[in-house]
Amino acid sequence: MTMRDFSTDHSALALNTASLGHNLDGHGAGWSPERVIDACAARGFGSIVFWRREIGSRAVEIGERVRAAGLSVAGLCRTPFLVGAEATDRQAVIDGAKASIDMAAGLGAAVLTIVVGGVHPGTKGTAESLKIVTDRVGEIAPYAAQRNVRLALEPLNPVYAGNRSCLVTLRDALDICDAVGAPSLGVAVDVYHVWWDRGIDVQMQRAGPERIFGYHLCDWLADTTDVLLDRGMMGDGVADLKAIRAGVEGAGYAGPCEVEIFSANNWWKRDPGAVLDVMVERFRTLC
Amino acid sequence: MTMRDFSTDHSALALNTASLGHNLDGHGAGWSPERVIDACAARGFGSIVFWRREIGSRAVEIGERVRAAGLSVAGLCRTPFLVGAEATDRQAVIDGAKASIDMAAGLGAAVLTIVVGGVHPGTKGTAESLKIVTDRVGEIAPYAAQRNVRLALEPLNPVYAGNRSCLVTLRDALDICDAVGAPSLGVAVDVYHVWWDRGIDVQMQRAGPERIFGYHLCDWLADTTDVLLDRGMMGDGVADLKAIRAGVEGAGYAGPCEVEIFSANNWWKRDPGAVLDVMVERFRTLC
Q1: Residue B228 DSSP class
Q2: Deepest in the core among A33, A70, A203, A274, taking most CB within 10 A?
Q3: Counting runs of H as helices and runs of E as strands, what totals does chain B give?
C-alpha cells in the first residue's frame, strides 16, 4: 500500500482553529473566522475545523465563506458532554447535542466530533458511563443522519478519563459504534490520544474507511508540562506519526488530516500566520 | 469466587512508604524506616514497601527490623529506568539494575518493581523502546533469580509514556514476560495506572497467579490537578476498586495490597499516623 505523498500535495491538510488559540480563555490573536479562512486558503490548506464558540449564529454564512475560498469545512468541535458531572439531565444533553448537530448542518461540516465526558456522578470506573454514552449517542444518531451530519466519537488519552472522556480507546469507541449500529456514527483518530496504544492498528482495520471519520495531528511532547494545553507541533515530540498514518491509511482512510494543537505557552503566543507556515512545512515533510 | 474479606482481616494491607511522602523533594514528616515499621505494626499492616533512597546501605538491618516487628518487606521501589533519556548506557543500566536487585535481596523484599522509562532517544513511538526493555530485562532476570528476587514490570498510565514508562498496558507487560520467559519476571497491577483499561480482566487472567507479583491501591481523582503528585486515597476518586480487585483475585492473586499515594498537597501534609489510620479504615471498608 502506498501512502499519500504530502510533499507534493498538501490539500489534505486541515486547520483545527484550536491551533491558533481561538478565543479560549483569552488565548490567541483573536482572528475572525474570515481572517482564518483567507490565511488557510493562501497557504493551500484543504479544509478547516471550527469550534462552536467561534460560530454562534453565523453557521451558514461562515460555511459559505469557506467554500467560496475554495476550502471545505472538515468538521465542527463538538457536542457538549454526553455524560459526567455536567451532563446529568438527559433531555438537556440530547437537546444540546441536537443543537450542535444543527450548527454542523448549517456550516456544511462533514463531521461533528463527540467528546463524551467523564465518569458519571454516582458511578465508579468507566463501564456504567459508557453505557450512558451508548444510550445517548443512540438517541442523537438518527437526528444527525436526517441532517446529513456524521458523528465522530473521539477517544481521549486515558489521563482524561475522570472528567473529560470515559471513552479512552478506539476499541471502546468501536464497541459503541457496534452497539448503536448507525451509519452516521464513526470514530476520530487523534495522535495525541492514541499514540501510546499498541492495539490501534487492529482497531483501525476493524473500523475501516466507512467508520474512520477523522484523523487529527499534533505531537506528544516527551516532557509535557500540561496535559491539556501543552501539545506539540508535529516533529517536536515522540509520537510515531508516519506509523500511525500508515495504520489509518492502511485501514482505508483518505480524508483530511486535521492539525489540532492546544499550546498555551508556545504556539498560541506566536503570530498565527507564522504558525500556519510551520504547520504546512511540518505536514509536507514529517507527517 | 469469593473475594477476601478485609473488614475482618486487614493483614493483606501493605504500606508503600511513598504514601507518607518519604523524603522526596522534602515532602513528608521525615519519619525513619524504624518509626514507619513500628507505626505499621501497631495498626496491623502486614507488610511494607520501601524506596531505595530510604534504605541506603542499611538493607539487611532494615529487613530484619521489619520481620522482628512481625511484618514482611513486600517490595522495593525500584530499578533505575531501563530505557529512555537517562538510560542510554546499556552496561550502566544493567549494573544499576543489578545493584537494586542486590538491595532487594538484602532487604529480603519479595518483589523489586520495574518502572521501565520513557521513549528512547532517537526513536519514535513505543515499539523500539519496548524492544530495548525486553533486551535489558532479559539480561537482569537470571541475576534476579539467583538472588531470589522477583521482578515486577509495572505498566504506568499512558500519560507517562513519553518520559517515564513506554510500557503502559498490562498487555504489553505480559508480552515482555512472554518474550523473556523467566519465572522471576511478572507484573504489578496498579489501580492508578490501569483503572481506565477495559481489557485488564482478560490480561489478568492471562497473567495468572504465577505472574501477578503485586497489586497497588490508591484512587484516581476525577479532577486531578497533577498526574504525578495528586493521587487520591481509596474512595475519594472514580476508580472501581472492588471490580479491579475482583479481577485480580479472580486471576488467582492472593498477595499484599499495597497503598501507594503520591499526594504533595494533601496526604503528604498530614500527620503520618493519621494517614495510616485513614488508610486502614478505607482498606477495611472500601477496597
Answers
A1: T
A2: A203
A3: 10, 8
- Over residues B146-155, the pLDDT tens digits come to 999 999 999 9
Q: Are B238 and A119 in contact (CB under 8 A)?
A: yes
Peptide bond before residue B78 is cis, with ω within 30 degrees of 0: yes
Task: Report residue A177 as a C-alpha cell.
Answer: 459504534
> Looking at the complex, does the CB of residue A119 fall below 8 Å from at least one CB of chain B?
yes
Residue A11 CA to chain centroid, in angstroms? Answer: 18
| Residue A143, pLDDT score | 98
Longest dimension (CA), chain A: 53
Paired strand residues for A108: none
3-state secondary structure of B249: helix
Cell, residue A60: 451558514
Contact B239 A157 (CB under 8 A): no
Q: Which residues of B touch A238 (CB under 8 A)?
A: 118-119, 123-125, 161-162
Alpha helices in chain A (DSSP H): 33-42, 52-55, 59-68, 90-107, 127-146, 170-180, 191-194, 200-207, 241-250, 272-286
HSE, side-chain direction, 13 A CA sphere, residue A116: 37
Nearest to B227 among A159, A168, A238 (CB): A159
Sign of CA dihedral A93, A95, A96, A97: positive
C-alpha span between B219 and B234 (Å, rounded):
5
From B58's Cα to the closest Cα of chain A, the distance in A is 34
The answer to whether B176 contacts chain A (CB < 8 Å) is no
Q: Which of A124, A162, A224 sits opposite B162 (nearest CB)?
A: A224
Under an 8 A CB cutoff, do A126 and B241 touch? no
Q: Could you tell me which residues are beta bridge partners of residue B101?
A: none
Q: Is the pLDDT of residue A202 over 90?
A: yes
ipTM entry: 0.95
Using CA atoms in the order A250, A254, A256, A260, what is the torsion angle rounded to 10 degrees? -10
Q: CA of A42 to nearest chain B CA: how many angstroms apart? A: 32
Go through chain A and tell me how many residues it has: 287
Q: Is B43 exposed, middle or buried (0-12, 13-18, 19+ CB in 10 A)?
A: middle
Count of pairs with CB atoms under 8 A, one residue in A, one in B:
100
Which secondary-structure segment (H or E) carries B77?
A: strand B72-77
Among residues 42-61 of chain B, which lie with CB inside 8 Å of chain A?
none
pLDDT per residue as tens digits for the range B185-210: 999 999 999 999 999 999 999 999 99
Helices B33-42 + B59-68 axis angle, to 10: 20
Peptide bond into A78 cis (omega under 30): yes
Which regions of chain B are under pLDDT 50? Answer: none
Quote the pLDDT of residue A129: 98
Res. A2 pLDDT band, cuts 50 70 90 = confident
SS3 B115: coil
What structural domains does chain B harbor? 13-286 (3.20.20.150)
Contact A163 B222 (CB under 8 A): yes
User: Does pLDDT of A24 surpass 60?
Assistant: no
User: Residue B230 forms beta bridges with which residues?
Assistant: B263
Question: CB-CB: which of B127, B169, B238 is closest to A124?
Answer: B238
